[in-house]
Design a protein that fits this description.
The structure is a homodimer. With about 325 residues, chain A is α/β, with parallel strands linked by helices. The first copy, chain A, folds into three domains: about 50 residues, 434 Repressor (Amino-terminal Domain) (Orthogonal Bundle), CATH 1.10.260; about 130 residues, Rossmann fold, CATH 3.40.50.2300; about 130 residues, Response regulator (Rossmann fold). The first copy, chain A, is built from twelve helices and twelve strands. Chain A binds a DNA duplex (16 and 16 nucleotides) through helix 2 and helix 4.
Chain lengths: ~325, ~325
DNA sequence: CTGAAAGCGCTTACAG
DNA sequence: CTGAAAGCGCTTACAG
């Protein structure tokens, strides 16, 4: 079937293509009757505007991007989907770009910006470490989700996150409150600006405040995957069996760790209490269910889109901190010697 | 910073923009030295082609789409990510469109096609029921992944899937082989062309062949979410406690069901053997680990992209069936009266 | 092998 | 309120 262009609509409606364009773009300076006539023809001909042509001419395109760091991070991919979903309902289209842990989010954004004339970008799980200055040269509204980015000067930058440090601290405070003293830690530090590192620093801070020395042999590095978490927990178990609690920097890590604990003949929570973080749906379906601090995914997604749109309208960026509520599961209990 | 266009490159390299365009598009009819000179300027100026302009003029764009039906289906979203990843490595960009179960995948594809001048489309989990004829009017290479679509006439249609019917049958064959006779079924039928329905029909076929009457009170409908699977299992449990096995149409459903079984005081596999389907990574990390038939996600993703590219080059579509290997987990055992 | 010119389908000042 | 014209940044016949 032949493709219907704006010219066909103009001819059929007996107006100029300028007028059709005005109607299409909801310009106010069109006669109501003319508008109605054009709209009827659009309907009749089932005209769909060629976005490539529109984007070529327009200053801003209808494209925004979501740059997702780490394709294996379940929480982030879920977040990306939510953002896509919210975008769709608001008529905003997101290109999604999944990059490896080692890839460069700044380069990705810049290329996308040049190639597609992006009008905005949401970063999920980026660490920004080395790119503070680079970003400031990019003339593009950016939102950093799940990571606090107040340190980015520039009015087009926003961020939405929970306070990762405080949450890590709260998790370990809670375990200590239950009587635990030997607490294993699973995760990775990464750059200081990284959300996951902050969780661990918060955990350490809690230990310090309670006068518990940080014990390296109770920590093992792992990333956001089940096998890596399983291996990490196994490594700790090969060194120590005397810990009674575990704080994992994410639910996924906690899942892998719980499996390792059970495979090694330990029971959760009888032998080891476990707290995760993220508040994934799956946390309620493990056996036992996992106690976790929730990152409010829905709020983060909604707020990200809202902040992006605000910045695109020229409003000044904001840095939003959301609470991370505790969700009680069956994976923790009081420690008794 | 000013945006560098093809004109800037042409001027700097002292050639016409036609020549720059030829170099950019890897046309053979360019002098080697000229090509080298242009490429050096491209590098120097950090020129990035404006994709909107290129796509406007070209017959085919560099956009393909992935239309994902059902945003809560973990297996499909994982598949989508893999496709994005493979596409990226091959310089192909995918727009991703997540639609609801009740949305119309044909309309989605058609609008995308008109709006963006798509050059191809991969459908994940679509059922096609009412759209066989519509699709044949769409002049767009299409690949249907996870669903068998041989019935689609037209040379630009391909599909990649496991044999869902046979796999459902194999799962129940296996349970019966272990001595189980009262087998619960969890999932939903949907349209006949649907992959999940086929799994259940296969399961029924197995029962029939073994002379076991299909018992409706052992079936409950649920979708691909944990809460729904949990509720479904709970509903079955409210009616019957005498079954010794469960076939769930997907791992996610199995996870939700196992949790429900355990919450109701039953043990897996002591009281109930469970088999899922999909072969998700998580299946190996539940307690006990889940026996499942794997849909080879990596192969499906690779093959989907390969078939799409072949169709875009004008090759005739193919319908590929992949094997679904059994992965042994701890969730099944021999039934003893 | 290379360049000048037309045109892809829109939007946007500029006139009226 | 409306239209004619220029132009967005490319690609692609058409000449040479």
């Amino acid at each position: 079937m032949r493709i219907v262009t704006i010219r066909d609509v103009a001819k059929e409606a007996q107006v100029s293509i300028s007028t059709v364009s005005r109607v299409l773009n909801d310009r106010p300076d069109v006669d109501a009757l003319t508008r109605a006539r054009v709209l009827k023809v659009v309907e009749k001909l089932q005209y769909v505007r060629n976005a490539n042509a529109a984007n070529l001419k327009q200053q801003h395109t209808d494209f925004s991007a979501v740059v997702l760091r780490g394709r294996r991070n379940l929480f982030l991919t879920d977040l990306a989907e939510r953002i896509l979903d919210i975008g769709r309902r608001r008529g905003r289209r997101f290109l999604i770009e999944i990059i490896d842990e080692k890839d460069d989010e700044f380069e990705t954004a810049r290329t996308l910006y040049r190639e597609r004339k992006l009008s905005g970008c949401i970063f999920l799980g980026s660490n920004l470490q080395q790119h503070v200055h680079d970003f400031e040269t990019l003339d593009l509204p950016c939102v950093f989700a799940t990571v606090q980015a107040e340190f980015l000067a520039g009015r087009q930058f926003s961020s939405v996150a929970v306070n990762n440090f405080d949450t890590g601290k709260a998790a370990v405070d809670r375990l200590i409150g239950l009587g635990h003293r030997r607490i294993a830690l699973l995760g990775f530090y990464g750059p200081v600006t990284n959300s996951t590192g902050q969780r661990l620093y918060g955990a350490q801070e809690s230990l310090r405040r309670h006068g518990i020395p940080y014990d390296e042999s109770l920590f093992e590095e792992c990333d956001f995957t089940l096998p890596s978490a399983y291996a990490g927990m196994t490594a700790v178990l090969s060194r120590r069996r005397d810990f009674s609690a575990l704080f994992a920097i994410s639910d996924i890590v906690a899942f892998g760790a719980m499996k390792a604990l059970i495979d090694h003949g330990l029971s959760v929570p009888r032998d080891v209490s476990v707290i995760g973080m993220d508040g994934t749906e799956q946390a309620a379906y493990t056996v036992p269910s996992l106690s976790t601090y929730a990152q409010p995914a829905d709020d983060i997604a909604t707020e990200s889109v809202r902040l992006l749109e605000a910045a695109m309208r020229g409003q000044k960026g904001k840095h939003v901190l959301l609470p991370a509520p505790f969700i009680q599961g069956g994976s923790i209990k009081k420690h008794v010697e």
